[in-house]
Specification:
The protein is α/β, with parallel strands linked by helices. 50% of the residues lie in helices and 15% in strands. The chain has one domain: Rossmann fold (3-Layer(aba) Sandwich), CATH 3.40.50.300.
Length: 165
């Protein structure tokens, strides 16, 4: 059983790559955005960055998902920003079954991607607050997001498959 968490700032491609990766591996995909309480969505829709107090119910919901996946022995992909090490520690717990993937890119590329998105609550203006909050992980597979989503998904799948052997 393996859980792969795709992390990074908004616009880094977590959901797109997560869906492609899940299809390629035949695993379940979970978008972390779906686990935000309505108050968080409302806040972000208004351009107000979340604080740690806002994020806690969201992180606990994701922690519950991870515990259920562990209990059911399900492989899965989760797209979740996980910007701070403390958030990653909460999700990881004392287990070593999470494969972290950090989708890393430069500000200009990510900003352009966010501006092009439609029907998403995260505005391009909030990108700077996420970058300021980001604590780059030390225990993650780092992927340059300048490649195509398909190339990135293939690269992650290859790495995951080699680590599962």
């Amino acid at each position: 059983m393996t859980i792969c968490i795709l992390m990074g700032v908004a616009g880094s491609g977590k959901s797109t790559i997560g869906q492609l990766l899940a299809q390629e591996l035949g695993w379940q995909f979970y978008d972390g955005d779906d686990f935000h309480p309505p108050e968080n969505i409302e806040k972000m829709s208004c351009g107000i960055p979340l604080d740690d107090r806002d994020r806690l119910p969201w992180l606990l919901a994701l922690q519950n998902l991870i515990e259920r996946m562990r209990r059911d022995r399900d492989n899965g992909i989760i797209a979740c920003s996980s910007l701070k090490q403390a958030y990653r520690n909460l999700l990881q717990g004392n287990k070593q079954d999470i494969f972290w993937v950090y989708l890393k890119g430069n500000y200009e590329l990510i900003y352009q991607r966010i501006k092009q998105r439609q029907h998403h609550f995260m505005s391009a203006q909030m990108l700077q607050s996420q970058i300021e909050l980001l604590e780059e992980p030390k225990n993650a597979f780092i992927i340059d997001i300048s490649k195509t989503p398909e190339e990135i998904a293939f690269q992650i799948a290859t790495r995951l498959n080699s680590s599962l052997v």
